[in-house]
Amino acid sequence: MKDRFLKALRCEETDQTPVWIMRQAGRYLPEYRNARVRAGSFLTLCKTPELATEVTLMPIKRFPLDAAILFSDILTIPDAMGMGLNFREGIGPTFSKKLENLSDFKRLPIPNPEEELRYVMDTIRLLKRELGSMPLVGFSGSPWTLACYMLEGGGSKDFNHVRKKLFSNPTEMRYLLEKLAKAVAHYLEAQIDAGVDAIMIFDSWAGILSDSCFKQFSLKYLKDICGKLKEKNVPKIVFAKGGGLWLDSLAQLEINGLGLDWSIDLARARAIVGDKIALQGNLDPAVMLTDPQTVRLETKKVLESIGNRKGYIFNLGHGITPEVDPRHVEVLVDTVHSYR
Amino acid sequence: MKDRFLKALRCEETDQTPVWIMRQAGRYLPEYRNARVRAGSFLTLCKTPELATEVTLMPIKRFPLDAAILFSDILTIPDAMGMGLNFREGIGPTFSKKLENLSDFKRLPIPNPEEELRYVMDTIRLLKRELGSMPLVGFSGSPWTLACYMLEGGGSKDFNHVRKKLFSNPTEMRYLLEKLAKAVAHYLEAQIDAGVDAIMIFDSWAGILSDSCFKQFSLKYLKDICGKLKEKNVPKIVFAKGGGLWLDSLAQLEINGLGLDWSIDLARARAIVGDKIALQGNLDPAVMLTDPQTVRLETKKVLESIGNRKGYIFNLGHGITPEVDPRHVEVLVDTVHSYR
To answer: Does A289 contact B213 at a Cβ distance shorter than 8 Å?
Structure first.
């Protein structure tokens, strides 16, 4: 049944528990690795709608998953703002520019999704033709997470530079985050107009913030975006990695689902957020590195832990890693679907 | 008053709020950088009691801090087990050996603290003579955190290898963790016998665990250690970085204080742990990178956030970083002591 994922997001009963996997179209798949070699780079895959479509469909063809997720990256917006995104083997994302101050922030254009990000919209339109009734998830990085990479010029162990700036110049940071919130809202609106069936916002670096900073510099802008997307009748999921302490606040957003990393027990999360919001997660991705028997056992433990599975979508607590044996995904999906 | 820190750990009233700083004898101090150059390496500083003593005293001479912390490293135990600890510039700790399986775990000796770790005990004895009534904090890494480094052969971004092993071979991991718990207990007992006034256990990698794994593979061994140290009449502090979701469980340990990273609001932490356990923390270390005015403002905000300051010790939420201007520490200590 192709509507399990969307039904679960509306907290309706489903025949089986829906399951998809963050980064399901990724390096653990040999066909993906081949496509990447042929394309020459990860960004070429993202930016060529035919290739991005092909890659998005790879896990769907292999496994009976309940949702497809657009093959793209959380950093498409800063790239479209002219920052020059690159991925270097073993290093991760880097920008050719690094933001420093307010005049840099002011110079950033808000991208027109049908122009600078047209490749994403074209991919969505292609995918909708291919997927039939299989739901497609669109996504973006959150303003805070985008700002982290934009101010550090790429990834970082602790993002000290951007954390410092929250304290030394909160006004400038608010200016930047507000602009990013507008850009993210436009981008997600355009994804919805192009046809995605659900959207997900990744706040990958929520967990490096203090309680007060999370509320001021991340949650506030998530709220703005969800408010702006209110009229679009498409379910919204927020995933704040390391944000287990803020589930009560996150549950106040105008969203349908919360993604959970593996640090929180699902029953506890359910008790905190109530039964109006779907939960999605949260198997430790390290389990996927073990063996079929352990994958089955640990998958069952996660399914047991939530109790009532209404409004629940199985996923990992973070993206699947490149070293995983694809047969373990088969075991995982089968275990979820056959669990009663 | 030299007894502020110990009084606060007993949840007694103090004239001023006590303050010390994790990694207070560190690279942000020019005199420390000189000593390190002279010694040739970080490990020589740790392993030469006269030098470790000199370095421990450096921040005490500069600032009116309320406690000294032994200059050492959380990885002295695996080094004493024969794993060959090294620190490489820009890389962090590495071991010359890497543990793989049960036979490796079985071969590990439990160090005799007065032999293989005698340099630590000698440093403590020297320090006690120098410090007078100033309290000295001894410490160790937690079994889980030691295991993380020992199985990866050093630091890691996500410790995938050790997390995998928790699932694929929990029995072997329990064997290792039990051995490490014994070693940590012996080590801390010896530190207490040598004269430290309080001990602190650093579970630096608690935050990468699932709820169930944290309870099985970290908390359990913290409990064993605290149980074994029960007869020693010296206050105990546990710091589980990223463990904000488990404060209720941590508060059940036989401890006097909990160290907190900056992700949790202090008033909320107080509400969870009750008023029998002292709290220590939790300014975001990134604040120390800003300017004197911001340091003062943000320090005051932390002091305000806890409400009643009985049973409270000011500290950062993690170690102070090398780029900090030492004058900011002066501002911080003054702000804490003059706050009413």
So the answer is: no
What is the fold, at CATH topology level, of the domain defined by A27-277?
TIM Barrel (3.20.20)
How do residues B192-236 score in pLDDT, each as one tens digit? 999 999 999 999 999 999 999 999 999 999 999 999 999 999 999
Q: Do B265 and A211 touch (CB under 8 A)?
A: yes
For B93-136, what is each residue's pLDDT tens digit? 999 988 999 999 999 999 999 999 999 999 999 999 999 999 99
pLDDT at residue B89, as a whole number? 78
Tokens representing A164 are 């410092």
Q: Where are the domains of chain B?
A: 4-338
Handedness of CA A146, A150, A153, A156 (dihedral sign): negative
Question: With the C-alpha atoms ordered B254, B257, B261, B265, is the resulting torsion angle positive or negative?
Answer: positive
Chain B residues with a Cβ under 8 Å from any Cβ in chain A: 157, 160, 163-164, 166-168, 207, 209-214, 242, 244-245, 262-265, 268, 282, 284, 286-287, 289-291, 294, 298, 301, 305, 317, 321, 323
Taking a C-beta distance cutoff of 8 angstroms, is the pair A206, A170 a contact? no
Q: At what angle do helices B118-131 and B170-194 cross, to 10 degrees?
A: 40
Q: Which fold has domain B4-338?
A: TIM Barrel (3.20.20)
Q: Do the Cβ atoms of B286 and A211 come within 8 Å?
A: no
Q: What is the pLDDT of residues B26-50, one digit of tens each?
A: 999 999 999 999 999 999 999 999 9
Cβ atoms of A272 and A306 within 8 Å: the answer is: no
Asked if B245 and A262 come within 8 Å (Cβ–Cβ), the reply is no
Mean pLDDT, 10 residues at a time, over chain A (340 residues)? 90 97 98 97 96 98 98 97 90 90 96 98 98 97 98 91 97 98 98 98 98 98 97 96 98 98 97 97 98 98 95 98 97 96
CA distance A315 to chain B (A): 14
> How would DSSP label each residue in A184-205?
HHHHHHHHHHHT-SEEEEEETT
Distance from the Cα of B152 to chain A's closest Cα (Å) equals: 14
Residue B149 a catalytic site member: yes
C-alpha distances in angstroms, B292 versus B119, B136, B327, B331?
Answer: 38, 28, 8, 6
3-state per-residue secondary structure call for A121-142: HHHHHHHHHHHCCCCEEEEEEC
Catalytic site residue B73? yes
